[in-house]
Write a structure and sequence with these properties.
Elements lengths: L1 E5 L6 H12 L3 E3 H10 L3 H12 L5 H12 L8 E4 L5 H13 L6 E6 L2 H9 L1 E4 L6 E3 L18 E2 L6 H15 L1 H8 L3 E5 L4 H13 L1
Parallel strand pairs: 1-3, 1-4, 2-3, 4-8
Antiparallel strand pairs: 5-6, 5-7
The protein binds BIS(adenosine)-5'-pentaphosphate and magnesium ion.
Length: 215
């Protein structure tokens, strides 16, 4: 299966992707995670992306599309993938279509996670990530680690993302509405869009997502 996850910052894309990728036996590919890994490794790509991310803006397409393509061409993604945070504007969606078409492939579904703004603000404000692995995600109130500040999965130190400050979150939401939301109509027109509510318990959202994808 080739699936795209969309939804505002803090909707729970990363959280759901971890479970869905496991259930569907496909890799979870998050462009945000890839950028953060490049930044922590001090790569040239990371250096170029950092200022955009700190400001809550999109990293330019000429950096993002190549990085996403390289990742999708890895052997583990041969039989499918779950994209989280890519595409994030119509030109990236068009580039993805071109990439897939060239390989004789197509998307199976685009899963849209719907959550209202005050809930995403609460989710982001309490989010904590593991220094060792961005995919280990916690929340101080909704998904607290057993020991404060320590990752349950690997014992790593938990931290708050630099772009999770109130001001940057406001900008990220604005960017989502103006640049990312148009891809919802783009995929609706292709008959690929599946919208679910991302409110409620993590398990319930995963169940809703699996049901929706089966259809
Ligand atoms: P990215 O890392 O993708 O950030 P984002 O889209 O803003 O989304 P988030 O990761 O903030 O939220 P999420 O939906 O994954 O929520 P999570 O599961 O963590 O992108 C960061 C930046 O990189 C961008 O701003 C841009 O600069 C750049 N970038 C990335 N991709 C790009 C692209 N394609 N083009 C250009 N630039 C790009 O959950 C949030 C919190 O809520 C967690 O604490 C979690 O525990 C909690 N939670 C989750 N589900 C629930 C639930 N059901 N109930 C209660 N709490 C919950
Ligand atoms: Mg995420």
């Amino acid at each position: 299966m080739r699936i795209v996850l969309v939804g505002p910052p803090g909707a729970g894309k990363g959280t759901q992707a971890a479970y869905l990728a496991k259930n569907l036996a496909i890799p979870h590919i998050s462009t945000g995670d890839l950028f953060r890994a490049n930044i922590s490794q001090g790569t040239e790509l990371g250096k170029r992306a950092k200022a955009y991310m700190d400001a809550g803006d999109l990293v330019p397409d000429e950096i993002t599309i190549g990085m996403a393509k390289d990742r999708m061409e890895q052997p583990d993604a041969e039989n499918g993938f779950l994209l989280d945070g890519f595409p994030r504007n119509v030109s990236q969606a068009e580039a993805l279509d071109v990439m897939l078409k060239a390989e004789g492939m197509k998307l199976d579904a685009v899963l849209d996670l719907e959550v209202e703004e005050d809930e995403v603000v609460k989710r982001i404000a309490g989010r904590r990530l593991c220094r060792n692995e961005d995919k280990h995600v916690f929340h101080v109130a909704y998904a607290p680690p057993k020991t404060e500040g320590v990752c349950d999965i690997c014992g790593g130190e938990l931290y708050q993302r630099g772009d999770d400050s109130e001001e940057t979150v406001r900008r990220r939401l604005e960017v989502y509405h103006t640049q990312t939301e148009p891809i919802i109509d783009y995929y609706k027109a292709q008959g690929l869009l599946v919208t679910i509510s991302a409110l409620g318990k993590v398990d319930d959202v995963t169940r809703r997502a699996m049901e929706a994808l089966k259809k």
